[in-house]
């Protein structure tokens, strides 16, 4: 039952030997001092316990620790010390000064701690409680645990005057199931004044809360007062506290539909740090509801936002999913928390989230600041709102779909810059600018609307405006509905001085409104713009050439037409000539060119005229598509005479799975969306897997995608040539690499889990077989980064891995899972590492390139076989604290690969490159201008 296994590595700093402690739940023989609470509490507090936990230990639990059994329940009520009223009751209390402890189970479900439900006479009774103090509790990991029916599953709290901002640095809470007890209202339990909480974490850097399932009962019957529950919540502290925080891949599930009367107040994830300027990422999470939920009647907020971006960091909410909540994403309420003013901070990036059946999608209040992009999709009720911008708040909306609600975008006293949005099919209005009361002579902040779709809505008003606005390219030519009403401003306002400007496409339409709806003499002055907006620059698009195999099926990808716009206007693509028989189709929004009618392809060459419009002006280019015989016929180009080397850059969460591929000379070869509609990010690698001497592009879906999805795109044509799921049922995202693992001369595909157990697999593209499967870091729950290279000089590449979180551990394995190498790349750093491998000095042995994970400036080291023991050579430090993501690729004409370094979240998507032979800087790659969500390189 109690088995303590000592490991062989001694910690010189703390003078103890880390241990693995196995604790199995009792099934009989319970007493007041020997029960399923006592054996756990003693392990963390009693030095006389045979299971006493020291810094660095790993505790493995198994069985059902039932704290409702009378002896355990009585012991739990008294707490660690067995005494009443000493402050440690109803929890396992973890005192400060105990660092780097892992509490885990062999698998999710193999260890359960069962609570009794909410107790009326105590507040926040729970499983694990950290009160905080003068010492730290850094480096803790909780994984694979099932905690049922507690007020508080895991609670970390702190004393600002004690251990300070780093008290809980390096915390990892991953792959747990927590069912929160139904909260008793204060009417039923006056002593129970706090909300129930699944996970409450506290201040520290480099923390990861990932892939947990939090179950909230909700309520069916209601109560005389609203009870409240929060799935995941953080402590409030000072700026910079939560640098490197990642809340990703979690599922918050409400089990019962809310009562119509007095429903339970529920918050899914409340990042409450007020840590303005830290790099914080909340991505790939789900907030799900039971069938029959009424979003108009419940009191649910899926996400509550407090921390904002600042000079030193970016706060990002990307790729999250919400169903059935009253509010999807909400800034802190000025009603509940009066006085909060976020206006002096940088914007929160809200990218690519999907919010369905919500009453309000995004609620920006308390003078919050936001940038909405990456294709947010919001649908809701006929009386609801997609985006609500409240008084003093500021939002920039680059794109998105806000449809099927009452009002798509509601500017209710705030300020908006709208550069593109789909506002179709809203019951009340696509865009509404509320009438407000303003003092005599003052102006409402101007609103700019660019590239909006015709909102329709059965002829209802798209928006009402108080003036001072610029409606640029507002409506399609020939629009016939009354879309804009120009209303007088509120009482006391000076409307006569307000000018409204409309672009040429709106001219005839606005005249209709003026003639029929607005008295210009009393409403203000309406001026019309020149036919083209001043200062507009036409889109830039060059002639492009693609190859396509004869006999390609419908839907086959030909390539992507690449264009850009200096004014950042949305672009629309169309084929205007040369498309004989309708052979091809082009996606109007992305430029993706695909086969539409296979019978029309033939065997020759198409010269397509492609038009690109920014809504004001158009540009054209010739796109040549050459058909070739891929079976070896006369016009089969065959393998390239010399190898063709490519590099790839993939956008992290919030950019719709965007991938760009570059030739060796730095020119753009392909630009496509690997997982179109998925916003959890895309990881990339390049290598020749099909044997045609042209490197192919391998991509892995990030957190939130099902099954560890991997795709392969042909480097010669850009066509999709393989798609498979590497880890059935896994949703934590995967990292990918290419290397010749089996020694057959072709690249194989290496896949590692992005979170959870550090599981690595290798697949042969040639025969679609599994070559290797092993756990890289036993007991780790933070995921694994992967690479491949011939480290030992034999005929096959080794699989190189790095710990994705925690200590900077690097290993190399043979395909059979035998360890070739193991070392720490950055001593004392606990944010994980990224890895690459390749022969940089042409000696026949691969060097290892290692970059830091998030939490510090991105550092890059190169390790030769002879320098592993001496710490390697630091070759670069990049700004920002999102880490350094590394890869190798051929960027010049010499005989060795070069080094690519991409930033993590928080920095502009600038990929830095270095000569592999001497580590001097080469030209940088500006992959995704203005995108701050981080990139992966390959």
TrEMBL record:
Gene3D superfamilies recorded: Cadherins (2.60.40.60), Integrin alpha, N-terminal (2.130.10.130)
UniProt xrefs under PROSITE patterns: CADHERIN_2
Molecular function terms from GO: calcium ion binding
Assigned GO CC terms: membrane
Keyword RNA-binding assigned: no
Domain Cadherin intervals: 540-645
GO biological process, one term: homophilic cell adhesion via plasma membrane adhesion molecules
Origin: domain of life: Bacteria
Keyword entries, A-Z: Signal
Listed InterPro entries: Cadherin-like_dom (IPR002126), Cadherin-like_sf (IPR015919), FG-GAP (IPR013517), Integrin_alpha_N (IPR028994), PbH1 (IPR006626), Pectin_lyase_fold/virulence (IPR011050)
The protein's name: Cadherin domain-containing protein
């Amino acid at each position: 039952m109690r088995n303590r296994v000592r490991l062989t590595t001694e910690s010189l700093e703390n003078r103890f030997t880390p241990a693995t402690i196995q604790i199995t739940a009792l099934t009989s023989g319970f007493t007041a001092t020997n029960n399923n609470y006592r054996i756990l509490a003693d392990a963390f507090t009693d030095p006389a316990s045979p299971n006493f936990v020291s810094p660095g230990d790993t505790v493995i639990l198994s069985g059902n620790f039932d704290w409702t059994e009378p002896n355990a329940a009585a012991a739990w009520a008294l707490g660690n010390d067995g005494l009443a009223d000493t402050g440690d009751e109803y929890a396992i209390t973890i005192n400060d000064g105990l660092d780097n402890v892992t509490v885990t189970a062999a698998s999710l479900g193999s260890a359960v701690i069962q609570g009794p439900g909410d107790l009326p006479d105590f507040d926040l009774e729970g499983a694990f409680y950290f009160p905080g103090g003068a010492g730290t509790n850094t480096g803790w990991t909780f994984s694979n645990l099932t905690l049922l029916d507690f007020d508080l599953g895991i609670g970390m709290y702190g004393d600002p005057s004690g251990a300070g901002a780093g008290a809980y640095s390096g915390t990892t809470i991953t792959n747990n199931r927590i069912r929160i007890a139904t909260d008793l209202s204060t009417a039923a339990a006056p002593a129970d004044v706090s909300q129930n909480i699944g996970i409450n974490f506290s201040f520290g850097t480099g923390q990861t809360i990932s892939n947990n399932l939090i179950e909230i009962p909700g309520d069916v019957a209601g109560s005389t007062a609203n009870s409240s529950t929060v799935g995941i919540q953080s402590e409030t502290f000072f700026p910079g506290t939560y640098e490197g925080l990642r809340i990703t891949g979690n599922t918050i599930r409400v089990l019962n539909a809310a009562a119509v009367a007095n429903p339970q107040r529920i918050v899914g994830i409340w990042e409450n740090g007020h840590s303005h300027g830290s790099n914080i990422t909340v991505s790939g999470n789900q907030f799900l509801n039971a069938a029959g939920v009424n979003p108009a009647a419940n009191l649910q907020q899926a996400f509550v936002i407090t921390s904002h971006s600042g000079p030193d960091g970016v706060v990002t909410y990307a790729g999250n999913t919400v169903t059935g909540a009253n509010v999807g994403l909400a800034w802190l309420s000025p009603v509940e928390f009066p006085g909060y003013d976020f206006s002096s901070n940088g914007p929160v990036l809200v990218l690519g989230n999907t919010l369905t059946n919500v009453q309000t999608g995004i609620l920006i209040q308390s003078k919050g600041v936001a940038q909405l992009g990456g294709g947010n999709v919001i649908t809701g009720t006929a009386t609801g709102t997609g985006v609500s911008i409240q008084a003093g708040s500021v939002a920039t909306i680059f794109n998105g779909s806000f449809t099927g609600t009452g009002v798509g975008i509601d500017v209710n006293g705030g300020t908006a810059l709208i550069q593109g949005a789909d506002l179709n099919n809203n019951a009340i209005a696509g865009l509404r600018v509320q009438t407000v009361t303003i003092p005599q002579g003052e102006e409402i902040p101007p609103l700019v609307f660019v590239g909006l779709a015709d909102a329709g809505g059965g002829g209802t008003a798209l928006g009402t405006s108080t003036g001072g606005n610029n409606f640029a390219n507002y409506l399609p030519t020939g629009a016939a509905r009354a879309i804009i009403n120009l209303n007088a401003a509120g009482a006391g306002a000076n409307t006569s001085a307000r000018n409204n400007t409309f672009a040429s496409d709106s001219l005839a339409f606005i005249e209709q409104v003026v003639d029929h709806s607005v008295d210009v003499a009393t409403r203000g002055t309406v001026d019309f713009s020149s036919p083209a907006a001043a200062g507009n620059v036409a889109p830039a698009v060059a002639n492009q050439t693609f190859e396509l195999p004869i006999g390609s099926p419908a839907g086959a990808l030909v390539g992507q037409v690449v264009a850009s716009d200096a004014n950042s206007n949305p672009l629309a693509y169309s084929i205007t000539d040369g498309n004989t028989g309708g052979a091809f189709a082009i996606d109007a929004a992305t430029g993706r060119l695909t086969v539409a009618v296979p019978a029309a392809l033939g065997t020759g060459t198409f010269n397509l005229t492609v038009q690109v419009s920014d809504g004001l002006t158009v540009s054209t280019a010739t796109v040549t598509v050459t058909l070739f015989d891929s079976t070896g016929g006369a016009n089969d180009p065959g393998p390239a005479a010399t190898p063709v080397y490519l590099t790839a850059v993939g956008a992290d969460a919030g950019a719709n799975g965007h991938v760009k591929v570059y030739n060796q000379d730095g020119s753009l070869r392909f630009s496509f969306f690997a997982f179109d509609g998925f916003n959890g990010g895309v990881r990339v690698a390049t290598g020749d897997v099909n044997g045609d001497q042209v490197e192919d592009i391998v991509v892995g879906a990030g957190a939130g995608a099902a099954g560890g999805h991997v795709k392969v795109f042909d480097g010669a044509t850009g066509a999709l040539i393989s798609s498979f799921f590497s880890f059935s049922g896994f949703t934590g995202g995967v990292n990918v690499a290419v290397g010749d693992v089996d020694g057959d001369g072709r690249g194989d595909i290496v896949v590692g889990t992005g979170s959870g157990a550090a599981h690595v697999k290798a697949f042969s593209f040639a025969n679609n077989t599994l070559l290797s499967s092993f756990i890289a870091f036993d007991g780790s729950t933070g995921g694994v980064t992967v690479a491949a290279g011939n480290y030992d000089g034999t005929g096959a590449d080794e699989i190189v891995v790095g710990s994705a979180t925690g200590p900077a551990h690097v290993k190399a394995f043979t395909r059979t899972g035998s360890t070739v190498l193991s070392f720490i790349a950055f001593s004392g750093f606990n944010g994980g590492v990224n890895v690459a491998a390749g022969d940089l000095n042409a000696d026949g042995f691969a060097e290892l390139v290692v970059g830091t994970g998030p939490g510090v400036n991105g550092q890059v080291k190169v390790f030769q076989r002879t320098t592993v023991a001496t710490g390697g050579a630091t070759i670069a430090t990049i700004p920002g604290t999102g880490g350094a993501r590394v890869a190798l690729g051929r960027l010049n004409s010499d005989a060795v690969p070069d080094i690519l370094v991409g930033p993590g979240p928080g920095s502009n998507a600038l990929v830095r490159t270095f000569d592999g032979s001497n580590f001097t800087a080469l030209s940088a790659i500006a992959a995704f201008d203005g995108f701050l969500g981080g990139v992966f390189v390959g």
